[in-house]
Description:
The chain crosses the membrane at residues 13-42. Pfam families: C2. It contains three helices and ten strands. By secondary structure, it is an alpha+beta fold. The protein has one domain: C2 domain (Immunoglobulin-like, Sandwich), CATH 2.60.40.150.
Amino acid sequence: MALNPSFIEKSQIFFRLVFVGCGLTNLTCFSLHVFCVVVLLINRYLSSSIMGEQLRLLKVIVVQGKRLVIRDFRSSDPYVVVKLGNQTAKTRVINCCLNPVWNEELSFTLTEPLRVLNLEVFDKDLLKADDKMGNTYLNLQPLLSAGRLKDILKVSSGETTLRKVKPDSENCLVRESSINCVNGEVVQNVWLRLRGVDSGELQLTIKLITSAASSI
């Protein structure tokens, strides 16, 4: 590995001053050079780790909605807004439908420890603000934990159930949800109930994907 001579020279001067200040006066130029190389390697390792985290993707497939509420005269024109941290994406509008099928994939990057996926359904209007049709959320912690388990077990092919999540007061699950590893991808299929409205559910498929470039 080629090192910048200027970097080596400046690093040697800096660390020599530090070592002399600490009373370590017997260090050779070679040992200082080795120390600088070690520092550089550690820095590159940490930088590579951060880049690896940036290459993790969360793919959200908004499959369909069921029994959505009426916001127009007899129906609604629903679309879904999905938020992860400061990232936002939305589906297309489906006109005059209370049981819409989107089958639309939205992608997000996981660059920080984000734990909750937020979703909100709206009714598209032309002459006024879009009406709210309920909101819901998905706790991503079980999915991320399953991803770590997949790495520990080194599962890369076939289909393996990693864990199951049951509905409770801490989530919006309509029914039990399985998290599986499918050919190296961690996949969770969920039905979520909408809050703040009389009825409505959303079906999602969530995929946690780690790029091969993230491996060190």
